[in-house]
Amino acid sequence: MPNRSLAEWLTLLESRHPSEIELGLSRVDNVWQRLQATAQPKLPESKPPIAITVAGTNGKGSCIASMQALLLQHGYSVGMFTSPHFLTYNERICIAGKPVSDRLIVAAFEQIEAVSGDISLTYFEFGTLAALLVFRDANPDVMLLEVGLGGRLDAINIIDADIAVVTSIALDHQDWLGDTREAIAGEKIGIARVGRPLIIGEQDYPQGFEQMVSDTGADALYIGRDFSYTEEPYFSAKLNSDAGPLHIDRLPSAGLLPVNKTLALQALLAAGLTLNPEDSRTALESVRLTGRHQVLSYKGIDVILDVAHNPAAAGALAHKLSAVEERSLAVASVLEDKDWAGIVAAMGSVVDEWFIAQISDTPRAAEGQTLLELLYNAGKSGQLLESIEQALDSALEQATTGDRVVVFGSFHTVAAVLNIILAEVSSE
User: Fold this and answer.
1) Are 333 and 308 in contact (CB under 8 A)?
2) Which residue in 102, 284, 310, 334 has a CA-CA distance of 20 to 30 Å to 383?
3) Minimal CA–CA distance to 289: which of 238, 252, 340, 255?
């Protein structure tokens, strides 16, 4: 077997499987069972990690980042798997809050290749198995697993999670998950397991949802009913624990949304872990997540990075932006399967000027001209640039003191701008 670098492996995996997305568990589970058969036996006193799986249309990354911060602050060891990444692939697999090395990922890829035989795995499935192998060797107290798409048929669901979390339910990825919220809800709660906690963060759930949850046999905890939070300027969480109700006040509202921080607290308590109020405040005060209402200063202008890529996420972003009266210049683009018209409608009241371009690093990008036409159809004016980089430059040229540039629509869009800003900062 050739000694490939991580970059060479990723190039190979991107080209190997005919479909970028192929939902279903049989192939990836088959390879995982083969990998398990080759594992070294654990010591008798070695306990497997608590597995917490998180699904949802929006809020997954924020919930997982909050859990990681809480666990580390309380002295627990933790492994975290998320997707996609912004700058380096290593961001997807973290131990103790730090991305793992190329060496560990390559070693995992080599193990997968050695046992997969004629089973063809997607890029995401390969990465999921690599993360599970890294966690198997590290054996952290807790492993946090973010669902890539849906839930029921996502590769992560080969793991029988001890705790399942569904953050939100909205229309997205309809080609894969169904074109109703009911259908999408059914896919997302597919991560639940009989007799185990299912933490539900969606309050406006679709018709028949409670029966769907009941049919899973999981022990459901609903936000707003079994646990809750209050907002502004700090927030308080009323939580459900084995020892009885737990109330934590004076929690920070800044940064990630309080609802996702509350879900993180409740999920860890449902796992039987001990949390104290002071450490919880400290952890949630410092937690930040790349591309989630991330504010950077660039060329004297505030640049807000947010991966909002569906109408629900765009609505949440618009709500945050509306709290401060500043002129907003949008740098935006989406993938072709996204509801661009819905995103524009959600953001229309807070965006003063639009600068759009076609994403250049994926064949799944929506055409720039199509984005512009839909913008005009919504009664908005905008400029179509040749690249995200040029869109950013144009927005910054028109921005004046007190304006803000808001970058959103896709991980690809945010990553392009983030690379520009970080490259300039590192060269200073």
Assistant:
1) no
2) 310
3) 255
**Angle (deg, nearest 10), helices 6-16 and 102-116:** 40
pLDDT tens per residue, range 68-108: 999 999 999 999 999 999 999 999 999 999 999 999 999 99
Angle at 278 between CA 275 and CA 283, to 5 degrees: 75
C-alpha 370/C-alpha 382 separation (Å) is 12
* Mode of pairing for the β-strands spanning 294-298 and 328-332: unpaired
Closest among 331, 419, 411, 334 to 370, alpha carbons compared: 334
DSSP 239: E
6-286 is classed in which CATH architecture? 3-Layer(aba) Sandwich (3.40)
Query: What topology is assigned to 294-427 in CATH?
Result: Protein-Tyrosine Phosphatase; Chain A (3.90.190)
Range 229-234 contact pairs with CB under 8 angstroms and sequence separation of 24 or more: 229/258, 229/259, 229/261, 229/262, 231/258
pTM here is: 0.92
Torsions phi, psi for 235 (to 5 deg): -125, 160
CA 112 to CA 339: how far, in whole Å? 36
Q: What is the DSSP string of 301-313?
A: EEEEE----SHHH
Q: What is the pLDDT of residues 15-56, one digit of tens each?
A: 886 566 677 799 999 999 999 998 777 666 678 999 999 999
Indicate whether 341 pLDDT > 70.
yes
Instruction: Decide: helix, strand or coil at residue 143.
Output: strand
Alpha-carbon span 139 to 75, nearest angstrom = 15
Per-domain boundaries in the chain: 6-286, 294-427
CA atoms lying within 13 Å on the CB side of residue 228: 6
CB atoms within 10 A of CB 349: 9
The bridge status of strand 244-252 relative to strand 234-241 is antiparallel
Q: CA-CA distance, 138 to 140, in Å (whole number)?
A: 6
Q: Which two tokens stand for residue 115?
A: 């046992």
